């Protein structure tokens, strides 16, 4: 156990938390777990696990509140309006109900030294502001995505009054936070343009849990189960959302259908999954396997199956500022990457020498790069080893959690 400075009681507000398996759930859990290991007390306020389908997981209830322990973390689950991740009004009701429930339960929690709330969405961020005032503790606002810019980029809203209100909330939150923790350098530049002093900001990027994401040895039980013996597999694992433009993968698969040993494997869920399944069937793509969201313990075996990791987003100026967490997980698993994201993500991949960058939404270029790696297995191995080394040196989640911890202790 390593405690640098006095032990803290950290209160973390997060809409997502395991057993949910999306990026914000993983980031929050892995940081909190490390802080507990380092001698701190951590309380998480979250909701009943239901992402992305809006159905509460087996073994849980959407009760007024429930309490559980997870690896030493004290987890309080509060009631929310549960809905699938689709439809602006329903999502907003979901977000508002979580904000209200977090504020209501906070006075019943023990004294804390610091409050963290993670955004998006900004209603969760604002819950952190109110709760920090209730608890008379400093407030750290974590920014994993820019709101409202990210929802504008995918066309989720167009009402100017709503947009102006969200922009006001964004600036209010930035100004009220004692510290802001964005996950990219581009987000920091965005905040500086809004007039936020650099002394108020500390970038702590995403990373990988290297105890979980590592090359897997031995016979893979999924090869026979999925009928993929002898196949060269290009894989996408993660949310099937509006931001990801996964039809690029399907159109690349259409171009490569004459190569019978190249298969595309997609695993995940999200608002676009049903449409993508329909498109796959419409194009009669027998070289595309689409699995539902998989439990986290099964993911290392799925990663071990694949030869290439595909990471894609829509072509948008905003998405030049984001860094998908799958970038670090792919490198940790020693998988060569084809990255259809411009900006800071591409800079990281190029620095790591761990794969190819392509133009977003360009299925022709995606197909060409897959063929290049299919025909050069030595290059696949080189890119994979380079990526693993780069993550070990720069994006080990346990080391990132220690940096975060030092920030929290400086505020207490």
Tell me what you see in this structure.
The chain starts with 8 loop residues before the first strand and ends with a helix. The chain is built from 15 helices and 13 strands. The protein folds into two domains: 9-207 and 396-411, Glycogen Phosphorylase B (Rossmann fold, 3-Layer(aba) Sandwich), CATH 3.40.50; 222-394, Rossmann fold. The longest helix has 18 residues, at 88-105. The mean pLDDT is 93. The protein is 41% helix and 16% strand. The strands form two sheets. The chain has a seven-stranded mixed beta sheet, with helices on both faces. The chain has a six-stranded parallel beta sheet with strand order 10-9-8-11-12-13, with helices on both faces. The protein has helices at residues 23-37, 88-105, 122-135, 149-153, 160-176, 185-193, 222-225, 247-255, 273-282, 299-305, 326-332, 344-352, 363-374, 377-394, 397-411; strands at 9-13, 41-47, 65-70, 73-78, 114-119, 139-143, 179-182, 232-237, 262-267, 288-291, 308-312, 337-340, 355-357. The protein has 412 residues and is an alpha/beta fold. The protein is globular and about 65 Å long. Helix 11 (326-332) packs across helix 14 (377-394).
Number of domains: 2
Low-confidence blocks of residues: none
Mean pLDDT: 93
Shape descriptor reads globular
CATH architecture level-2 label of the largest domain: 3-Layer(aba) Sandwich
The CATH superfamily of the largest domain appears as Glycogen Phosphorylase B
What is the class of the largest domain in the CATH system? Alpha Beta
Major β-sheet profile: 7 strands, mixed
Helix content bin: 40-55%
Rg, Å, rounded: 21 Å
Taken in chain order, the helices and strands follow as: EHEEEHEHEHHEHHEHEHEHEHEHEHHH
Could you say what the CATH topology of the largest domain is called?
Answer: Rossmann fold
Q: What is the count of helical runs?
A: 15
In what order do the strands lie side by side in the largest sheet? 3-4-2-1-5-6-7
Distance between the termini: 20 Å
The number of strands is 13
β-sheet strand percentage: 15-25%
Class derived from helix and strand content: alpha/beta
